[in-house]
Backbone:
């Protein structure tokens, strides 16, 4: 476990490092423009980064819609996986959301991503449905997960 992880709001200055992680982690990575719009313009978005020694090692994002939080993305640099970085990011995001009056969360996760599914289950999420062919790169299904009454 990393003890020296600092979680803070994502800023435009973090985006280059976030993009580097994004490209390592996803077959259809978000663009710089997408992150800039989320961080600089989307009033309903909240994005956090995890850093150690001033290096971004992970990030998470959420859209807030009334009393719901929709988790949009979560990624951890491969060198820092297995060190509870994703767990810390999710816990911080959910605390922030609760402080904003959010009392339920939803997300989509690849059917094949068992590591992420296990993290979300550990946090109290349950599978409630499937989005068939959701992912454009290979038409993989997405599991829809919810955590109610946070």
Residues:
């Amino acid at each position: 476990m990393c003890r020296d992880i600092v979680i803070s709001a994502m800023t435009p200055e973090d985006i280059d490092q976030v993009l580097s992680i994004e490209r390592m982690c996803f077959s259809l990575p978000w663009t710089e423009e997408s992150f800039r719009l989320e961080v600089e313009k989307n009033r309903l978005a909240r994005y956090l980064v995890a850093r150690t020694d001033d290096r971004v090692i992970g990030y998470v994002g959420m859209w807030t819609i009334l009393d719901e939080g929709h988790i949009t993305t979560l990624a951890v640099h491969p060198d820092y996986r297995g060190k509870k970085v994703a767990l810390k990011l999710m816990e911080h995001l959910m605390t922030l959301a609760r402080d904003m009056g959010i009392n339920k969360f939803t997300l989509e996760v690849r059917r094949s991503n068992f590591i992420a599914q296990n993290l979300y289950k550990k946090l109290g999420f349950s599978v409630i449905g499937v989005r068939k062919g959701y992912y454009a790169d290979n038409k993989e299904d997405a599991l829809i997960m919810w955590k109610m009454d946070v």
In short: The first strand starts at residue 6 and ends at 9.
